[in-house]
Amino acid sequence: MKENKDKELNTLENKLARTEYDVYRLIDKIEALNIDTISASVIQRIELQIDNIRKDISTIYKKIETIAIKYTPKPIFDKAVQVYGKYKNQKDGAAFYEIAASKFSSTAAKEYINKNGRIYEKVSDLNNRNLELFVRDKLLKQIGTSETKGVLYNEQSSVSKAITRENSFRTLISNRKEDLLNNRKIEDTSLSFEQGNLRSAYHYADIINIKLDSNDNLYALVIDTYDFNKFENDPLVKKGGVYQDIGKLEPYYNIAVLKIPKNEWINY
User: Fold this and answer.
1) Rounded to an integer, what distance in angstroms lies between the CA atom of residue 6 and that of residue 10?
2) Mean pLDDT, range 95-108, rounded to an integer
3) What is the DSSP letter of 39?
């Protein structure tokens, strides 16, 4: 592994040196300009060079990030995820990772689960035939097994509250208000959470059993598996996928229960 790391670092060092040379050469070119030599075409060439340097720097930055993540030992990587989650206000995303990384055993994982919901040791413990079938099918497609532990988060949980504040969820409900009021329910669907906390926790999720109760409270279940794909381009996801494959992360499923009073969802 050390040889691979040294080779990657040498390649990166050469790229940095070439980019540094390009920057100094461009500076020299700009300093040499005068009123007689400057023109629209010259400015265009300079802008193109600046754009190319900007792209090179972006590539180098991404490569540094990838190398740093790739060769970070798991205890340090796990801690870094928690620090990043706190710094970026992604507490649910960081907690979801901690549950997988510690295999439900760390104090932080237990405290988060106990505060927000409960563990289900077996899918059959859900005690709802239709929900069990849905979860098993999703697990089989995503992870390749129909049996894992799971966590059900209650309607007061931080992640459930975060979902009710999220724009894509609010837009979904806003666009289907009339259907909800007329039919008391709408069909199951899925959402992609593309930013921050919920992207780290869920990213893609199914939303099922979307319906109104007798008081017009809106109920729904948000379901996803928490697992990693080592073939993803994102170095963080790739790292998680490697850990998962060697048994250092435990994949599981999440169910967030939503309950939203009518005076809130009607104003989405």
Assistant:
1) 6
2) 96
3) -
